[in-house]
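Here we describe the complex-level prediction in full. Unlike the single-chain runs in Section 2.1, the two entities below were treated as one system.
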Amino acid sequence: MTTLLPALEGAAEDVLAEDALAEALRGCARGDRAGLQLLYDRLAPKMTGVALRMLRRRDLADEVVHDTFLRIWEKADSFDPARGRPTSWAFAILRNTALNALRGEGRMELVGDFEAIEPASEEADAETLVMALSEASALRRCLDRLEPARRRAILLAYMRGLTHGELAGRLGVPLGTAKAWIRRSLLTLRECMT
Amino acid sequence: MSADERDRLASEYVLGLLDMEEMRRCEERLARDAGLALQVELWRARLAELDATAAPVTPDPALWPRIEAALGPVAPATPRRVARPSRLATWWESLSLWRGYGLAASAALVLLAFGTAQLARQAAQAPVLVAVLLSDQNQPAAVVNAFRDGRTELLALSALKAPEGKSLQVWTLWDRERGPVSVGLLEAMRNVELSVEGLPRPAAAQLYEVTLEPAGGSPTGRPTGPILMKGNASPTETGI
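The structure predicted for the assembly as a whole is:
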């Protein structure tokens, strides 16, 4: 590791960490609980943070993390390292579980919480999120190319799991406009990041 | 679907913009459209950094023991059984989508249940296992009778019809490793013999369920749509 440049060292550590997670997933597929515990120890704190950001309620966030690890355990044998990193595979399950919770029966209870959020704080949240991305990140560079209002729309959608309709309501624009904004912004992002 | 439409759907799915029905359709499609699956992976990779910006939160110390307990006892034969159901209502369990289609009024159901049970009793020997399939509103919607010789029938207690372009698919699950197996495909609920040839003899607690699938049945061979009704088999006093 000492022969690597500092910037690459981080990347190499990432690769090693991802290898350990892939091994842990193979363990889960064989029924080895230690594999699941390793995944939990490594991923649960960040997952709880992401779930809390989406659901705004600690009890629901914990429930989502709980369900996520049960699904990881059940689906571990379908993980294919050729198709993506273990972290992004696991976070896709987390986000799906959280979206299902947002869209499911618990959703009505959440509406009150959503409305209580000051728009100003969401704006600040979205900007904080951009600032939290690494300076070197391509995503950050590309998000910076978007108009602030459109950048906020993308970030809000991702962070809060808002549907097109909810986003349009939040931004105070017609549904068609919100859809068109999002589409244009995503195309810009895709071109910028390719 | 053009490459552009695929990319659009993938980006909106990964961003989380789709409503429940759109999500369900996208997931159905993902199972059979490798191009779409690839675009989804690419979008996940592009946006993954956003998840990394979330402030880590120390999980509740009670959470891991609860997860571990839900994994069930370690047994080599069934190493990955998940024993405890989730407390969260997931989309395929919540069925709020389905309420509009509606099942018949409960009073009618009771009458129908009584009548059908009488018919069943006259028509054949007593079943060794019976599963009452309940809707999400806990209304009996169908009964599955399994007989000693393995023959299994479904008796409809509701007049539920699949909407245009959809089918009702009947599944049974006795082994989580094997997963649910399709035993029937219907356009509308009716009394029907289930296709159980080649399957092990039904056992107590075996799950039967009916899901809403694309016309002609699930494209993946596994349930993809909402569960309309489900129930576990119980032994009758006749015994297995």
